[in-house]
Amino acid sequence: MVTTNDSLNTTLTPGSLRRVHHIALNVRDMQASRHFYGNILGLHELKGEEVPATLRDLVATRKVANFVTPDGTVLDLFWEPELTPPDPNPHRAFTRANHLAFDIDPQLFDQAVEVLQQHRVPIDHGPVSRPTGRGIYFYDPDGFMVEIRCDPLD
Fold this sequence. Notes:
This protein is an alpha+beta fold.
């Protein structure tokens, strides 16, 4: 729904945007990224009829891979092998996105940290504990920061 306060100010009302539909990331190494998001982080990769019709040709040519989170948010990986980050050091690379955060049950947080360590995933920092819960920040194969976080234990 759109409301108009005056002729120059048109806004969406709170609740008009229902949810995040998808997140799209450019990746240089599709195989490494599919392994990271599918096997290490355990996201479900969409296959066959699960793939949105608008992306089936790109998926068939291996230019796109689609994953879905348990809450239904789709993560699209777009293969861009020639696209390099502004700086190969992720601490200095500039991107308009800061990080992608996944929520996990507090009882599984330590296991998630162990999985990251076993797979030698580069850790930026953490685990950290805050009043809002615990988190660990790490990098995907393209140097994009990802977080796994949980609410505090009750």
